[in-house]
Design a protein that fits this description.
48% of the residues lie in helices and 8% in strands. The protein is mainly alpha-helical. Strand 5 (232-240) and strand 6 form a beta hairpin. The longest helix is centred in the C-terminal third of the chain and has 23 residues, at 451-473.
Length: 600
């Protein structure tokens, strides 16, 4: 009867609990008896033991004061009790010996490997806002930086809680995100060391690296619409790689200024939502091939340009034709119609004609039986009018390293206000490689999801490495003519036949390309490293190659879902959804493969 009343009557239950706690505190004999019973039940009942362990671990993770109290008690007992210290040391010695024996078992090694690669790059540094792995971060404790006023002031400025999850009314109870990496504040070792020394980390968000939120006017644009509103268009030959669904790039990246005023005047205006127009973006109107071919919502383009006119510093002086007197189509004779007679006679660049085929398939597969793109073939048959646009025709490419506004002009969606690019003035100097590292690994994800920005950053980094190495290449040469050369004599030396002969003889002409992957100097260094390994270690007996089985790595897919703030798991995704998830997150997929390789 008492048990039934305890289970049903809530007031009676609380009253009994209060009386029990009071008696436990007052009565010493009762306390010892309860402890003895608890210990006995813990030893006998396996389910009770697991439940107590789970509750203890959960409380240790959640309650900071309880965690510190447990640590203090453990340390005090270890240093205060000699017998306990001996038992701990002996247990650790036995444990190390057991691990050494288990390391020879394949199942144990496999279990250890899977445990290490379980967590992906889902830990956000509260200072530089980069997504990092667990071994690259530690728990951020603000009290740790209260050593002196300088360190405390830097910590207050740099440490932010932008990506720390805080429960609100929309969260489910219990909130699942509190047990993930977003439920705790983390800091990377680099930022931790800089703040400890009283120095602001160069990658800190307040060092002109803050990202502005993308407004709805820009977030709804597809890739072609983004190119139509860009002041500079980054042209690059992107290839669809044969396997994996990822993209590659061939050749250089060329940024050409675009006439967005003319583009805005040519596009027809319609106030109806969802009115689509087929548009081909070309490098030159006389080319048959196109750089990009998609449906364009002219209303979205107009709204995006109006927003950029109000907020972006690079669009302030741009004047648009609000009355929309479309003079270009009439003067140029309907150049927007895609007909068989709109191509002028002359030499057509074959490489540009077949660019679309190469982009989609990485090889030429057009036959008389099957078109290259069946879906596009059907669209071409049922739609007559196609608008051809070449906003960058007739303009000269810009210098990538000299034009300080080029990055913001090429990617206005990523930089809605045109600020905080690489050439922004900063209190702490930041190198180009560290800047792009911060951008691509940023927790916001906008840079990592933009494939064009990734290839743009790669090309910029390579150009910067080449330029920086050229300045010292002649001073480190082997020939007598290439050593101790003053700056004002470099041009004269390059015009001298004997000096050029020396450069070619000692391979100084391309040695500065060694840091760039894929160059002859790079592969020459790789060959010498391989021969050195053979001389030191002997001839290898077997070779092995590794490939990425990313579709089978559930931890990779779960990590991407956590980055996007989704509560799903990889088990509930279809095959097509997995492919799209990996295709949209090439940076995370590449980082996970590299991490698994190094752990292996």
């Amino acid at each position: 009867m008492s048990i039934r009343k305890y289970q049903k009557n809530l007031l009676h239950r609380e009253k009994v609990k209060e009386m029990s706690v009071s008696k436990y505190r007052r009565d010493m004999l009762h306390r010892e008896k309860v402890k003895e019973m608890s210990v006995s039940k813990y030893r006998r009942d396996m389910l009770h033991r697991e439940k107590v362990k789970e509750m203890s671990v959960s409380k240790y993770r959640r309650d900071m004061l309880h965690r510190q109290s447990v640590k203090a008690m453990t340390k005090a007992r270890y240093y205060g009790n000699a017998d306990h210290k001996k038992r701990v040391l002996a247990a650790n010695k036995v444990k190390r010996q057991q691990l050494k024996e288990k390391a020879e078992q394949f199942d144990f090694v496999m279990e250890q490997f899977l445990a290490k690669v379980k967590d992906g790059p889902e830990f956000v540094c509260c200072v530089c806002h980069r997504l990092l792995f667990r071994h690259q971060v530690l728990n951020c404790k603000r009290d740790f930086y209260n050593k002196n006023e300088a360190v405390a002031s830097f910590a207050d400025k740099c440490i932010t809680e932008v990506y720390l999850h805080k429960c609100n009314k929309d969260c489910e109870k219990p909130c699942q995100l509190l047990d993930t990496a977003r439920g705790c504040l983390w800091i990377c070792y680099n930022c931790h060391g800089k703040i400890n020394k009283g120095i602001m980390p160069p990658e800190c968000a307040i060092n002109s690296l803050k990202v502005d939120p993308i407004p709805p006017e820009l977030a709804c644009l597809n890739s072609l619409e983004q190119h139509l509103i860009s002041l500079n268009i980054p042209f690059m030959k992107m290839l669809a790689l044969p396997k994996g669904g990822q993209n590659g790039v061939h050749g250089p990246v060329t940024c050409v200024p675009a006439n967005i005023v003319q583009t805005s005047n040519v596009l027809p205006r319609c106030n109806m939502e969802g009115s689509l127009l087929r548009v081909k973006l070309k490098r030159k109107l006389t080319y048959k091939g196109h750089y990009e071919y998609q449906f364009v919502d002219t209303m979205h383009v107009r709204q995006a340009l109006q927003y950029l006119k109000r907020t972006n510093v690079h669009y302030k002086d741009v004047e648009f034709n609000e009355a929309w007197l479309n003079e270009f189509c009439r003067e140029e004779g309907d150049l927007g119609k895609d007909t068989d007679g709109d191509v002028e006679s002359g030499k057509v660049d074959c490489e540009d004609e077949l660019l679309h085929d190469r982009q989609q398939h990485c090889m030429f597969q057009d036959t008389c039986l099957m078109p290259v793109d069946i879906g596009q073939e059907m669209l071409d048959q049922y739609f007559d009018d196609i608008l051809n646009l070449a906003p960058a025709e007739g303009n000269s490419p810009v210098k990538l390293l000299s034009d300080h506004a080029n990055e913001a002009k090429c990617f206005p969606v990523l930089f809605p206000q045109g600020l905080n690019t690489y050439h922004e003035s900063r209190a702490n100097r930041l190198t180009l490689s560290r800047y792009f590292n911060n951008r691509i690994l940023h927790a916001d994800g906008r840079f990592a999801h933009n494939v064009e920005y990734i290839f743009f950053a790669q090309y910029m980094s390579e150009i910067e490495q080449v330029v920086s190495n050229v300045s010292i290449a002649l001073r480190k040469g082997k020939g007598c003519m290439s050593q101790n050369v003053p700056d004002n004599k470099v041009n004269d030396m390059l015009k001298n036949d004997e000096s050029l002969k020396k450069l070619l003889e000692f391979d100084d002409g391309y040695r500065f390309l060694k840091p760039i992957r894929g160059t002859p100097a790079f592969w020459q260094g790789a060959q010498r490293d391989l021969l050195a390994c053979v001389r030191q270690l002997g001839v290898p007996t077997w070779f092995c190659s590794f490939s990425s089985a990313d579709m089978r790595w559930t931890n990779l897919l779960d990590s991407i879902l956590k980055q996007e703030g989704r509560a799903q798991t990889a088990a509930g995704l279809e095959w097509a959804d997995r492919c799209d998830l990996l295709r949209c997150n090439p940076v995370t997929a590449a980082r996970m493969f590299d991490f698994r390789w190094h752990v292996f």
